[in-house]
Amino acid sequence: MTKPLVAITGASSGIGAGVARVFSKAGYPLLLTARRVDLLRDLDLPRTMCRQHDVADAEGYAAIVDEAEAEFGPVDLLVNNAGYMALNEVRFQSPEDWRRQFEVNCVGLLNTTHAVLPRMVERRGGTIINLGSTAGRNVYENHTVYCATKHAVHAITEGLRREVAALGVRVLLISPGMVESELLSSTESEEIKADYRAYRDQIGGALAPADIGEAMRFAYEQRQQLAIWELVVAPTGQLV
């Protein structure tokens, strides 16, 4: 039986790449987007369309979805994974750091959702999984703006769920704790990076991106009438 199309944003590294590998191994065709299209192609996954895209570009994503659906059929799962994290106290950050985090983590998520959600509603089926975070349930030191964006993602997800639940579309939230990824690379403070890594080591290490991919696949492969509203996945040693 042919499996439906899975679209993953920010799939060039970290969680996005891990999710792509998990779903590809399970036999799903993929639409992968990221700013670094060369890294998408380096994943070398079968039945996969790779396209360069910044989630800030709403119209561009709709055109990419049209292209992928012409080849593989309708997007049945959208994974809103693209993210940006710049850690520091607000007084030491630039407005550009604040803007970019909200633009990617919140507005970008809405842009890509807007491209596929009306199609899902029309078909009365489909799933959107948004990448939340334990940072959307807590407020961590040096994470003020990033936590704000993830709290917003949690609220957006719940609002969208209520909008389309009666129309047969699932909107789910996967909230990871500490995961090995490139997100920390956008943080300039070496002290903050060192503290982050020290905590990672203290709790016995971060999760692998594939761990999040398996959690997403578990949630997605439940029957359409079963919605796992939120799944929090974190290292056993992580407390909050």
Care to describe what's here?
- By secondary structure, the chain is α/β, with parallel strands linked by helices.
- It has one domain: NAD(P)-binding Rossmann-like Domain (Rossmann fold), CATH 3.40.50.720.
- It is about 45% helix and about 15% strand.
- Helix 4 runs parallel beside helix 5.
- The model has no long low-confidence stretch (mean pLDDT about 95).
Brief rundown of the structure:
By secondary structure, the chain is α/β, with parallel strands linked by helices. The chain has helices at 14-25, 37-42, 58-72, 95-123, 144-164, 190-202, 209-220, and strands at residues 5-9, 30-34, 48-52, 75-80, 127-131, 170-176, 230-233. Helices cover 45% and strands 15% of the residues.
Average pLDDT level? 96
In percent, how helical is the residue content?
40-55%
Indicate the proportion of strand residues.
15-25%
Strands side by side in the biggest sheet: 3-2-1-4-5-6-7
CATH superfamily, please? NAD(P)-binding Rossmann-like Domain
Instruction: Write the CATH architecture name.
Output: 3-Layer(aba) Sandwich
How many alpha or pi helices?
7
Count the domains.
1
| Number of DSSP-assigned strands | 7
Question: What summary fits the major beta sheet?
Answer: 7 strands, parallel
* SS content category: alpha/beta
Task: Tell me, briefly, the overall form.
Answer: globular
CATH class label: Alpha Beta
Quaternary structure = single chain
CATH fold-level label: Rossmann fold
Separation of the first and last Cα atoms = 41 Å
- Output the helix-strand order: EHEHEHEHEHEHHE
* Rg, Cα atoms, Å: 17 Å
Low-confidence stretches: none
